[in-house]
Specification:
heterodimer, A: 585 residues, alpha/beta, Rossmann fold, six-stranded mixed beta sheet, B: 275 residues, mainly alpha, two-stranded antiparallel sheet, 9 helices, 2 strands, flat
Amino acid sequence: MSQKVIETPISVKNVTYTYPEQDTPALKDVNLDVGQGEYVVVMGRNGAGKTTLCVLLNGVIPNVLGGKMRGRTEVMGLDTRRHHVYEMAQYVGMVLQDPEAQLFTSNVRSEAAFAAENLGVPREEMIERIEWALEVVRLQEFVKRAPSHLSGGQKQRLAIAAGLVMRPAVLVLDEPTSQLDPIGAQEVFAVLRDLNQDLGMTIVLSTHKSEHAARYADRILLLDEGQIVAQGTPQEIFSQVELLDRIYVQVPAVTRVEWDLDKALGKTRTEKGVLLEDTLSSLSNLLDEHGIARQSTVVSTPPPPIPPAPEEPTIAFKDISFQYPGTDQNALDGISISVRKGEFVGIVGQNGAGKTTLVKHIIGLLKPTSGQIIADGKDVAKESVEDMAQTVGLVLQNPDAQLFAMSAAEEVAFGCTNLGLPPEEVAQRVDRALAATGLEEFREAYPFNLSFGDRRKLSVAAVVSMEPQVLIFDEPTTGQDFKGRRDLADIARRLNEMGRTVLMVTHDMDLIAEYTHRLIVMGNGRVLLDGPTAEVFQQVGTLAETFITPPQVTQLAQALAGYGVSGNILVADELVRTVKGKVGL
Amino acid sequence: MNALMFLNLDTPIHRLNPLAKLFIVACLWTASFASSNLVVMLVVVVYCLILWRLARIPLAGMKIFLGAVAFVGFLMVVIQGFLYFSNETVLFTVFGYPFMAEGAIYGFTMGVKVLSVATAIPILTMTTPVSPLMAALAALRLPYKFIFVFGTAMRLTPLVQEVFEEIRDAQRLRGHDIKRMNVIKKVTKGYFPLFVPLLLSLLRKTGDMDVAIESRAFGAPVKRTYLDDVSLKGPDLLAMTIVFVCTAGLLAFSFYMGWGAGLIGWGGPTGTGGN
């Protein structure tokens, strides 16, 4: 790390920035000072200007991306306009949002080393830093693996490791944990806190993960439409629930519970609890005040019902194992599961657990090394992917790898046309799919001119228009803001209510809790747990084995079990109703 | 399988220092280029195939590579058959143009030369990750910008393949079945929809890569260091010595037999040291 110490390493003065060929500024009159050793978290909906602010700090804006910039940005005393990005990189480390776009060497170890080599870090120290960084992101076993052979989450971990190895004075990370498993994301926030405290590293991080921001940030910066609309400590910011709802920033679940209860109780506290332990303490006090006796036995309410099972499953995995070529480990190891028609199934597990590998088998993109998969009565191994696509729709993880047409309407029509439908039917389906995903106004737009969130919705529309009986969403909420996540989950729910079978791979436990009937938990290529969502979230120990934690509300409910609160509670509303019931409201 | 793509295995050849492998390839190329003696070139091919075997490079996976080399060899036979300056033995004529045995044999010899040069390449590229290779080139004091361009070019092939497969998978997931199309449809409706997004995607990726590379301090005004240790160890020196001795033997054989006048040389089957 550079020895240069500056009291205010980041100073942004009156910056307004407009991207080339755009009319509306992405940042408007932004003023920001970040002190040495501060840990600043930037939050805001998609398109609020988070990424723009991040890349402003290492001079990519305006030096690489061009555009019009007014105002002045100084980082470590260097005017970003006057210094090349590679000069700034001696002081500012950058972890970009899309891991696919920033991995370019042949293996994990050399990827982690690239920046350190460029910075002239002595070899012995470089090795030490690489070993540390890869351990932090749990990639120490994959040093020889090609980045292209890592899972999406592992790629993101590698991008983080590459940034950590730099040990810069200022580390900027743009949504670095969007594809990480829950414990992995928490670990990254914690490691950054350690670097921040031990080395005095200044951290600027953008995220949608309010739970971690609440725990680790010194200061939260709220951006909306390119402007800073609020900044303050996590408690100051997250207590402004109405503002956060208005600008689609997720409120930590525990704060939402406190806010709802305060409203019901007529309390006018300006600051709410933002951490699990704070809210636990508040609720315990409330229940104690109302004389709710602690119980020795834990109450358990029945989980939500799973739809009745028809005789034949829609999808059946029969002892499936799979090994990627050139590896010596099974990516799937003896998987036997069935999915019934009309189920809404969540699939979770640590990065690299085999989730994407599993769902790719359902449509035949991957063929098992051993075992058999039956989907819609067909032996998948004997069918072509193109034929299976008529009954199974798979929306892959990275939307950018799935868009190839010159307009949104063409993109959606592509699959329908391949089904051999008449043009009128294709047109109707295109209209319906674009309407269902809220993309009607973009029908003639070039897909890559859409925002990331809309590109994701377009990739969903393109598959939904084919009207398959089984729909699989592989991490549909990655990089999505609070609203985008719910929009996509709502689309999935509507399709499920229309009778489609839906499988959703995600790291978003709140969505899993709210939307799915059944939860499959994977770890190291095996199924660790499979059952009703609420029941599975009770298995805290097994979940932790695969780096999963239950949603914050469920954790809070479990912690309140002594007061007779059911540990099966999955959403904030339900917990609020339960507590209100207990205190007689 | 691509002859430039690294094969992630642990074999004696993989473990050799990239500098040693560069030396080995240089020796094999020297023998191939210095001599047009068919025996010498065939021995080089055999050397290469032995090294392939040691590196566990599967012959079955190299069909496209070997097919391309065979095609070049075939072209050389045809072109030289018709254009060779000596016309002692006419085998047949096509529209009045004679096809000569000497030309065909010369073309065949050149084809084997191409084969011997080409088969040496995977010994380096398929057994060495790009980064150590770049470190080795740096140890040879080549300018880093050149090395980086070389490294990027090496990575471009797998990147193109990766993007191509992503797009093809996305299209297959939407029922786009190229296999069932006839030849014309394959080109117009099958590959064209793949080519345009491939090109656009690659352009976008290279732009993103530019940002990522600069953000990771590429070009920073400091003396670059390298993670990979490129000092030569005992096995490297042993391998280099063996290959050096074998190459020297081949060159001595060529010298004894005549550089281009062995069994088949520049001057043809009865050549007398034509060059």
